[in-house]
Design brief:
The complex is a heterodimer of chains A (155) and B (161). Chain A has 155 residues and is an alpha+beta fold. In chain A, 17% of the residues lie in helices and 33% in strands. Chain B has 2 domains: 57 residues; 70 residues, no CATH class. Chain B has 2 helices and 6 strands; from the N terminus they run ββαβββαβ.
């Protein structure tokens, strides 16, 4: 856990122009509506003419990583797009950059084999832990495709 | 404002050419614990890494509030105008925090360039920041001074100051 997390307040002025106000807060705060962020937001609202339209609390962590491999589709411009249905009937797409080889249907290098062991494990982990943005549980993966994207600078 | 029901987890990838990518998913909001320290996060992380040749080198979480639509007050200043507040962290480094579109009462009249240190909204803001900001080693910030600044033009394609 980091010593500090980042709290952002989103504002918009009478011309419709957005601005953000970002400050570091204690690393034990995980909610933008906790007491500390709330005190900052209230004081900011009183000091500005813009409307405060919401806030975000961001945390960061490093991950124990390994050396990237020069196998499979090894640039992040290649992506898997994996589609899950939500229990509410919605469609959820999740992207994973630089996919490994060996997870595609026989004779294809772009259509994901949803019966592949790695995909089944991923599907199970998502179903048990991830949600739609509306907090709806995901069902098993329905399809997957490898696609290329234009690399975004600075990412 | 209440928190949204889900928190976004962002995994950052680095491929062998040095380019960065990302993968995102949502988990149910739990504001009492670090979302990057829970099993919801670690289980999905462990299932995603074997699917990619790139390495996951960092993770971020974002917890947002419900958006509340209110009416901004019209004024001669806008989001480009800032109340710049200079603080010093516990390691002696100076940090600038910029409140957009400040009220004129934040400044000393008639020039409206220097932050007013009389009791008022600006002093309340710096007090709230001093009380609640924490630097990267867990130390406190000390307020130094405040002044007005107008930002340069927006970068092409950007809509935010």
């Amino acid at each position: 856990m980091a010593a500090s997390n980042l709290y952002s307040v989103n504002t918009i002025d009478a011309n419709g122009t957005e601005a953000k106000f970002r400050v570091p807060v204690a690393g034990t705060i995980f909610s933008p509506s906790a007491a500390g962020p709330l005190a900052i937001k209230t004081a900011l609202k009183n000091a500005i003419n813009s409307a405060v339209v919401g806030g975000e609390l961001s945390t960061a962590a490093t991950v124990a990583s390994y050396t990237p491999a020069a196998t499979g589709y090894f640039t992040v411009q290649d992506r898997l797009v994996l589609t899950f249905p939500g229990e509410d009937g919605s469609t959820q797409n999740y992207r994973i950059p630089a996919p490994v080889d060996g997870i595609f249907e026989a004779g294809s290098d772009s259509i994901v084999d949803v019966g592949n062991a790695l995909i089944v494990t991923y599907s199970g982990a998502m179903g048990a832990n991830a949600k739609t943005e509306a907090n709806i549980t995901l069902e098993d993966i329905s399809s997957g495709l490898r696609t290329g994207t234009k690399l975004e600078k600075g990412r | 404002m209440a928190d949204n029901p889900t928190q976004k987890i962002i995994l950052r990838f680095l491929d062998m050419t040095g380019k960065k990518g990302r993968s995102e998913f949502w988990i149910t909001t739990n504001t009492s614990a670090d979302p990057l320290a829970g099993s919801y996060y670690s289980t999905v992380l462990a299932a995603i890494q074997p699917l990619s040749t790139a390495t996951i080198f960092a993770a971020l979480s974002e917890t947002t509030e419900h958006v509340v639509v209110s009416t901004p007050v019209s004024s001669t200043w806008d989001s480009r105008d800032k109340l710049v507040m200079q603080f010093q962290d516990s390691m002696g480094r100076y940090r600038l925090y910029k409140a957009p579109n400040p009220k004129t009462t934040c400044f000393v009249s008639p020039a409206l360039q220097t932050m007013s240190t009389a009791a008022g909204v600006a002093l309340s803001l710096t007090a709230a920041l001093s009380s609640n900001m924490v630097d990267r080693v867990g130390g406190a910030f000390t307020f130094i001074r405040g002044y007005r600044l107008r930002s340069k033009r927006l970068r092409p394609g950007s809509k935010r100051y």
